[in-house]
Structures are given as C-alpha cells and as structure tokens.
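Annex B. Sample input.
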Amino acid sequence: MLQSPGDATERALAQGRAEQLSVQGCWIRAMPAQVPSAGYFTVTNAGRAAAKLTGIVVPGYGMAMLHQTQKTGGMAKMTMAHEIDVPAKGNLTFAPGGYHAMLEKPSDQARIGALLPVAFQFASGAQVNASCKVQPASALGPD
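Annex B, continued. Sample output.
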C-alpha cells in the first residue's frame, strides 16, 4: 500500500509528541473477576503544549476506561473522562480517590504479579507504552 507524504509527516509529528510524554509508576489493583479493577500511573509531559490522554489499551482486560472520582457534599461518584489534560512541562498522577483507569473483564493474563504492556493513547496520535504490574486488592501503591 502506498502512503502519501502527509501520512509520513503525521507519523513523524506523533512520534515527536510521544518522545515528550512518558509514563511511570504504573500498577493495577486486581479485584475478583466480577468487580472492576483499577490502574494507576503518572503521565509526564516534557513538551511545551498540554497533551490530552484519550485512552489506554491493557492486554489482560477486555475493557479499559478513564475515570475520575469526584467528591461533592461528602458523596463520591465516578465519572467517565474522555480526554484528560496533562499540563505542559508537568505531570498528572492517577491515584486512588482521583483519576484512574477502570479495567473490566480480566483474562488469565491479569494474574497477580504479571507485568502487562499498556498502550497510552493521546489526542495528537501519539502513543506511549509502559509496563504495569498487577498487584493484589490490598495494594496501596506500586511495590
């Protein structure tokens, strides 16, 4: 299949954006199969413009969605987040009680102790890959 010079330019720009983005401290709190698990991590943006995280792909789970826990009047509720800004020259931490990845439909790959390759997707077309360790439900952070 032939590709236009525009396709190559778009790929190069996305690659450049991906080089300015990184993910650290990724871990997944495994729960029983009927209960959604959650993924936590920190996204760092070394670029001069904000980046928008739009999704993640986690082998080992049939569904992954970005969520935010919001507290209002003593009540907490989760809302789905379609685009999450990662500030320029800054970072955004996904942690219990705040932003998190909701992970559903685990497979045999999602066993405690496994290291899963996760793809973080951005509105610019950039993709950042990181490894996330599956930890027990009692975990409070990456080990």
